[in-house]
């Protein structure tokens, strides 16, 4: 028979786990478009992006079916009209119009759909629309752009915790974020956000909530807080997608900064709900954004020490699944 003290400890841990899981569930439920009657304009935009990306994916297939996606196209038109009535022209509305224009110019477009798209885009200058739909790319294009020793580049990246203390230029971070926005993302919904802090006092305040920056956080030239906007997700099946999209964005951002010659170190945000709330009270991170990770960024010294961080053999991560 287990001691009473052990049982009480188990119940206490279960209660703590429930509190923290409830915090995450409540945040997702309040932000995501998980029920039609709760939909916000941001949820509707996420649905619109998901829908017009379905058309893009269909057009990119080797042999798209004639007239495919007719119902989705009708839904797109309805969503764009509804959102434009509420908020005027907006980026993803223009992206949707551009995608339908690309569809209109493709051989799969039926005469009926062509007439509907022409009516929908009447008065719209195609030259003013962002590029969307499909683009034609060659293997030679990709090989030319990727003609680098990526293995050497990736293996030269370390988590660096030794900086000069000089500020990191805002323009450099902005350029890196622009590169990171090309990261893969679910149905092209761009939920990743980068909250950049350059002010020393604000960095110190934010870092006080993170336990892994002692001894070097005060030398960072910028602090980035990577988040993912939960309003870009539409049902409970996507409840964990923010960590995937935000994580992919954070890794690409890290490589983009590395390519510019800046040092960086990911700082995990593995915290309890009370600490998450405390940070949001001190730093303006909205509730609808899940905090994925912090990233300290700094100016490299001429020479410095790094943790070796040995990696296991590739077979610990690589698996081949044979016939069922």
Structure description:
The protein has helices at residues 4-31, 41-59, 70-87, 91-104, 111-120, 139-145, 150-155, 170-180, 200-207, 241-260, 273-282, and strands at 192-197, 222-229, 262-268, 289-299. The chain starts with a helix and ends in a 25-residue tail after the last strand. By secondary structure, the chain is α+β, with helices and mostly antiparallel strands. Helices cover 47% and strands 10% of the residues. It is globular and about 70 Å long. The longest helix is centred in the N-terminal third of the chain and has 28 residues, at 4-31. Helix 2 packs antiparallel against helix 3, helix 4 (91-104) packs antiparallel against helix 5 (111-120) and helix 8 packs across helix 10. Strands 1-2-4-3 form a four-stranded antiparallel β-sheet. The mean pLDDT is 94. The chain is built from eleven helices and four strands.
Order of helices and strands: HHHHHHHHEHEHEHE
Distance between the termini: 44 Å
Number of helices: 11
User: What is the beta-strand fraction?
Assistant: 5-15%
CA-based gyration radius: 24 Å
Strand order of the largest sheet: 1-2-4-3
Quick one: biggest sheet? 4 strands, antiparallel
| Residues in helix, % | 40-55%
Quaternary structure annotation: single chain
**What is the residue-averaged pLDDT?**
94
Sum up the overall morphology in one term: globular
Q: What structural class should be given to the helix and strand makeup? A: alpha+beta
Q: Low-confidence runs (pLDDT<50, min 5 residues)? A: none
Number of strands: 4
């Amino acid at each position: 028979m287990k001691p009473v003290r052990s049982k009480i400890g188990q119940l206490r841990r279960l209660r703590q786990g429930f509190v923290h899981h409830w915090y995450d569930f409540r945040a997702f439920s309040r932000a995501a478009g998980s029920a039609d009657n709760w939909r916000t304009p941001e949820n509707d935009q996420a649905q619109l992006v998901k829908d017009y990306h379905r058309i893009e994916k269909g057009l990119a297939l080797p042999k798209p079916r004639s007239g495919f996606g007719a119902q989705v196209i009708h839904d797109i038109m309805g969503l764009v009209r509804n959102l434009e009535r509420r908020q005027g022209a907006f980026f993803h509305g223009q992206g949707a119009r551009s995608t339908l224009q690309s569809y209109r110019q493709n051989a799969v477009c039926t005469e009926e759909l062509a007439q509907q798209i022409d009516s929908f885009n009447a008065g719209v200058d195609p030259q003013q629309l962002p590029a969307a739909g499909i683009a034609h790319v060659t293997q030679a294009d990709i090989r030319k752009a990727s003609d680098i020793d990526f293995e050497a580049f990736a293996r030269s990246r370390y988590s660096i915790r030794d900086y000069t203390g000089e500020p990191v230029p805002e323009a450099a971070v902005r350029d890196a974020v622009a590169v990171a926005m090309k990261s893969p993302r679910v149905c092209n919904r761009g939920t990743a956000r980068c909250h950049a802090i350059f002010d020393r006092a604000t960095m110190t305040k934010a870092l006080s909530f993170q336990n892994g920056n002692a001894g070097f956080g005060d030398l960072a030239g910028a602090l980035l807080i990577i988040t993912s906007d939960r309003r870009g997700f539409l049902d409970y099946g996507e409840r964990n997608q923010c960590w995937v999209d935000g994580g992919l964005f954070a890794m690409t951002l890290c490589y983009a900064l590395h390519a510019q010659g800046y040092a960086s170190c990911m700082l995990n945000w593995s915290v309890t709900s009370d600490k998450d709330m405390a940070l949001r009270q001190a730093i303006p991170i909205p509730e609808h954004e899940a905090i994925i990770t912090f990233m300290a960024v700094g100016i490299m010294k001429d020479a410095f020490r790094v943790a070796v961080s040995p990696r296991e053999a590739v077979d610990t991560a690589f698996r081949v699944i044979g016939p069922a």
